[in-house]
Amino acid sequence: xxxxxxxxxxxxxxxxxxxxxxxxxxxxxxxxxxxxxxxxxxxxxxxxxxxxxxxxxxxxxxxxxxxxxxxxxxxxxxxxxxxxxxxxxxxxxxxxxxxxxxxxxxxxxxxxxxxxxxxxxxxxxxxxxxxxxxxxxxxxxxxxxxxxxxxxxxxxxxxxxxxxxxxxxxxxxxxxxxxxxxxxxxxxxxxxxxxxxxxxxxxxxxxxxxxxxxxxxxxxxxxxxxxxxxxxxxxxxxxxxxxxxxxxxxxxxxxxxxxxxxxxxxxxxxxxxxxxxxxxxxxxxxxxxxxxxxxxxxxxxxxxxxxxxxxxxxxxxxxxxxxxxxxxxxxxxxxxxxxxxxxxxxxxxxxxxxxxxxxxxxxxxxxxxxxxxxxxxxxxxxxxxxxxxxxxxxxxxxxxxxxxxxx
Length: 407
Prior knowledge:
By secondary structure, the protein is α/β, with parallel strands linked by helices. It has 13 helices and 10 strands. The chain has helices spanning 2-12, 19-44, 70-75, 101-108, 152-171, 185-188, 197-203, 209-214, 216-232, 250-256, 270-293, 304-313, 375-385; strands spanning 58-62, 129-131, 190-194, 237-241, 298-302, 322-326, 346-349, 352-355, 365-367, 391-392. The longest helix has 26 residues, at 19-44. It is globular and about 60 Å long.
């Protein structure tokens, strides 16, 4: 363990422990160890079947990255224009100017967009699935001050309530069949997950980097419990997306990136991205472990982090002009983000009434409101997901459709 010897030697020749140096070396060792462990697990454990994109229904769990209206309906939150302007031409409950990644994936599977479970107005159809995601949600149980009370465990509980109610209604007759998933859809359906970002990002406001990293196993134990509960209820096809580069969001750069030494080569907050990488390594290991335990199930893990880092690193190659600056924000370059006022809001700042509007062309921007991505960026990410090469196991040779995407 050369890193450990060096660390001890440096500490023994100084009056106080060089904790930062040791922490960095330890993190490097952790990443190296986990990479070896993942390789060994993938060799020893049987791989599940790959995603076949032929599902009668999709049941989604997550945060704002895949929330199609849950938080807005569940808490009565208000989203004003320009949210939704690109595709829906009005706010749709999505924290985006248009479609989310999950919308593009539903289109690729030739399925309609998912309705939020919490939004019951307008007689929505849940025939092809349901979205339990809510913006601001965490894997760990929500605190009293959390943006969303709909943590992962609550979302799973809502799914069980949904399933029980659906089966009750189906037993009463066929009059609601066109609005509800058939009984066997719950076993044949795809269960999608994109959650964990808020656990990490929120923790940095009160914890040091090493304490955030130390909390990852606890977060993933909660996630594992939810997955196992779903499996026990008949779920067999799981699609798990890892978390993106948190340090590249304007919100986090504005709060934690004032010291240039804290930024990486992309201008992103290094601590947040290191934590995201370690979270993803452990999430990948958990996915491999569960695949070994669930011999009759299929778990697919997809590396969203690498896709988004590639987009931000090579933004001009994909037709974007602004990799970090928010399209809808306040304050101007370089971030166009101010935590005092958010996209679509009107407030009085320094004695002047200010309304935050969107940029002229959101297709030139990767970041929408400083926290979420634009529809154009989501389309790019979706196109890369659908190549199959960012997934374990890969599924590029299993796709029954031809890709016809912008990128």
